[in-house]
Write a structure and sequence with these properties.
Layout lengths: L21 H16 L5 H10 L3 E2 L4 E2 L4 E2 L5 E3 L4 E2 L4 E3 L4 E3 L4 E2 L4 E3 L17 E3 L4 E2 L4 E3 L3 E2 L4 E2 L4 E2 L8 E2 L9
Parallel strand pairs: 1-4, 2-5, 3-6, 4-7, 5-8, 6-9, 7-10, 8-11, 9-12, 10-13, 11-14, 12-15, 14-16
Helix pairs in contact: 1-2
C-alpha cells in the first residue's frame, strides 16, 4: 500500500546524486547514448563511447545494438562479457558486472525504486552486482539492491528482487531451464 496522502507533485529526489553535472548528463543523453543505441555502430565503438563517458569496461566485452545505459559513469563491466540487443541498464546507482557475464536480449537491470510509504514517493535506490560467469537471460529483470552470485542463471522472464546464491537458478513462473 502506498502512502494514503500520496502527492507525486511534491517529489524532490532528495539525496540522489547523479554523479556528474548537468552539461555532462546532457552530452551523454544527446550524443553518447544515441550512438551506443544505434544499429550500425560496431560493438567496439560502443565500448569506446561508454568508456569516454566514464564506464569501466574490460577487454573483449561486446555490446550489441539498442543497449540503453542510464549513467555510464556508474557502470563497471568485466572482461569478455556480452550485453545483448535492447538490454537496459537503468543504473541510477552503480551496476557492477563480473567477467564472462551474459546479459541477454531485453534484460533489465534496474537500480531505481521509490519509498512506497513516502508521501512524495522519494527514491529508494540500490546498486546491483552480477558475479562472474552469471547469465541474465532474455527479458529477465534484476531489481535494485540485488547481488547475483557467480555462475548463477536468471532464466528468461524471471524477476529477481532478492540476492541470488552462487550457482543458483532462478526460474520465471512456469518456465523450464534445459541443462
Amino acid at each position: 500500500m502506498t502512502h494514503p496522502d500520496l502527492s507525486l507533485g511534491g517529489f524532490t529526489g532528495a539525496g540522489y546524486d547523479k554523479g556528474r553535472g548537468i552539461l555532462w548528463q546532457a552530452a551523454w543523453h544527446l550524443l553518447g547514448q544515441p550512438l551506443v543505441r544505434a544499429r550500425p555502430v560496431p560493438s567496439g565503438l560502443r565500448v569506446k563511447i561508454l568508456r569516454a563517458f566514464g564506464a569501466r569496461i574490460g577487454s573483449g566485452t561486446r555490446i550489441r545494438e539498442g543497449v540503453r545505459v542510464h549513467w555510464p559513469w556508474k557502470l563497471t563491466v568485466g572482461a569478455d562479457c556480452w550485453i545483448g540487443v535492447d538490454a537496459w541498464i537503468l543504473n541510477l546507482e552503480p551496476v557492477t558486472i563480473g567477467d564472462n557475464v551474459c546479459i541477454s536480449q531485453q534484460a533489465l537491470l534496474c537500480t531505481g525504486s521509490h519509498q512506497r510509504r513516502s508521501r512524495t514517493f522519494e527514491f529508494d535506490n540500490g546498486p546491483i552486482t552480477v558475479g562472474a560467469r552469471a547469465w541474465i537471460a532474455t527479458r529477465a529483470t534484476v531489481l535494485r539492491g540485488v547481488s547475483i552470485g557467480p555462475n548463477a542463471l536468471i532464466a528468461a522472464g524471471a524477476v529477481v528482487s532478492e540476492d541470488v546464491s552462487p550457482g543458483a537458478i532462478v526460474r520465471a513462473p512456469e518456465s523450464t531451464v534445459h541443462d
